[in-house]
Write a structure and sequence with these properties.
With about 550 residues, the protein is an alpha+beta fold. The chain has 3 domains: about 240 residues, GROEL, domain 1 (Orthogonal Bundle); about 100 residues, GROEL, domain 2; about 140 residues, GroEL, CATH 3.50.7. The protein is about 45% helix and about 15% strand. The chain is built from 16 helices and 21 strands. The strands form 7 sheets. Strands 9, 10, 11, 12, 13, 14 and 15 form a 7-stranded mixed sheet that branches. Strands 4-17-20 form a 3-stranded antiparallel sheet. It is elongated, with a radius of gyration of 30 Å.
Amino acid sequence: MATQDISQKPVIFLAEGTKRTRGRDAQSINILVAKAVAEAVKTTLGPKGMDKMIVNELGDVIISNDGATILDEMDVEHPAAKMLVEIAKAQDEEVGDGTTTAVVLAGALLERAESLLDDGIHPSIIIKGYKLAAKKAKEIAEAVADTIDREDKTALKRIAMTSMTGKSGAEAEESLASIVVDAILQVAERTDKEIIIDTDMIKVEKKAGGSLSDSQLINGIVIDKEIVHAGMPKRIENAKIALIDSALEIKETETDAEISISDPEQLQAFIDKEESMLREMVEHIKKAGANVVFCQKGIDDIAQHFLAKEGIAAVRRVKKSDMEKLSKATGARIVTRIKDLSKEDLGYAKLVYEKKIAGDEMVFVEGCKNPKSVTILIRGGSEHIVDEAERAVNDAIGTVSAAIRDGKIVTGGGSIEMEIAMKLRDYATTIGGREQLAIEAFADALEVIPRALAETAGMDPIDTIVDLRARHRGKDGKYIGVDVYKAKLADMSKLKVMEPLRVKTQAIASGAEVAEMILRIDDIIAGASKGKEKSPGSETGTEFD
């Protein structure tokens, strides 16, 4: 009797319905997906970048050319695509801009890696080369970066405008950029060693109506609430502000309780007691000297009546984040117990008033002493316009803050990417071995940025890259980039197209890291859906297309 070789039997260790893709196929699928995601946002690059319209499952429409927003709103399924979305979010949170650059660069690095894989170069060699190139790229960028005066409003304004270009109405870019710079310089706190900028202290409030040029900076806070009682003053000068983090209401018992009342006098006494407790709360506020109250929780109707009688304006259910901003702006301390409220806890504002904007009442707190919290109020003709302007302002806040913190800038228009690419090719020759090919591939990938800018300007991308390479070999060539408005090469330093160094170094590092991570994957195991009954002969599992 012949014995069967046990090694010939297939070993099954995965659940039924699990789909598995291995080796070169797995790498090809991941690279294909990453390239598709990068391609989706590539056309949004630069001032002439195109917008994307995203319609979600509820039918809501978002029109944007902000990379982070597009990727966040796109309903991506594949894990490799989700990795690219994650780096876009990380880039946005870290420096506020450069999300599209990071994703497009990651896609280009993977595209170049695919050619190297086809030539038989092992992923480990490519990853090693990419790591060397990313490290060297950061060194090159720091070496060619220029220093700016952190107090130079003109330079900071140009950085803000470069960040905003293409995202909002061109006619309002300059005024919005000025607002952003003024807001950041207002909240910046200087120490002996560094400048600290808490961007959370810049509140961005938006209301459709008017035009973008009606947007304004308020040296104080705008609260999207109304003054609670019609009898309260709607305009208070020399406001003494109390911030209360407790309800101006009678607390209910924490345990279930039942009050038994046998005659009407007891009921009246109960009501009178509640009223006297609320009156007592208002007396404490009046005694402290407050004439404006912002309450994080509710305010009882009777308490509202007593506050109105005392001429005290009140706003209820103010968000915690707004309370913190009010505290920073006015110098008030947030009080949890009303009994503890004293004159020292009050903040000051020259003016507090209620104003109707686009049909909604809003409360403005203005004229604070050296406010460390400010509000940018964005106006625009429609919801889509104010939403995109808000994204542009948030990007500008991130880039200007990064420029002030580091004091280092580079020129835009693809000039810095081309300069790094040129120097990386020189560096590659000093490395030798197969890693040299990966470093050269990294340099080629960087050129995708000026190439994309040339395409959006209607220029020939190949001729543009060839001309750029030639110009970057010359003196002061590091400033030569793509002038998309005139569709030609120009000196970006003369055009004042400037970006913070950190935006570029972070984008290159993020793009390289995600490319390296995807290249390491050589096996995709998609598990079968648990808890679902499989029909006979059917396969369950997640398919990665």
